[in-house]
C-alpha cells in the first residue's frame, strides 16, 4: 500500500470555491483502478496537546494499491485540469508519500 498525505493552506476567501472543486474531482478519483481512499479533512479541536488549528488548512489522505496506481492517478488529464483550477486558491502545498511499516 502507498499512502499520500497532501497538506494545503487555502488562501483567505477561497475555501468554499476550493471545496466545490474537490467535490467534483473526488468521485472520479475514487473510481480509478487502485484507489482505496481519497478523503479531504479539516482540523477540529481535540485536546491541548495538538498543534494550533489553522482554519485555512485542508489535508488530503490518499491510499493506493501500488506506486503505479498513484503514478497513473497523477497522470490523469482531469487531475492536471483540477490542479490548474485550484493552484491560485492555495498558498502552499506539502506532499508526503509513504508505505506501510508493518506488511
Describe the protein's architecture and organization:
- 33% of the residues lie in helices and 34% in strands.
- The chain has 103 residues and is α+β, with helices and mostly antiparallel strands.
- The chain has one domain (2-99): Alpha-Beta Plaits.
- A 4-stranded antiparallel β-sheet has the order 2-3-1-4.
Key features of this structure:
Alpha-Beta Plaits, 4-stranded antiparallel β-sheet, 103 residues, 3 helices, alpha+beta, 33% helix, 34% strand
How would you summarize what this structure contains?
With 103 residues, the chain is an alpha+beta fold. It contains three helices and four strands, in the order βαββααβ.
**Poorly predicted runs:** none
Structural domains: how many: 1
Q: Mean pLDDT across all residues, rounded?
A: 96
Strand order of the largest sheet: 2-3-1-4
Q: What fraction, in percent, of the residue positions are helical?
A: 25-40%
Beta-strand content: 25-35%
Number of helices: 3
Number of beta-strand segments: 4
| Shape descriptor | globular
Main β-sheet description: 4 strands, antiparallel
Give me the CATH architecture, please: 2-Layer Sandwich
The secondary-structure element order is EHEEHHE
Rg from C-alpha positions?
A: 14 Å
Structural class: alpha+beta
- End-to-end separation: 9 Å
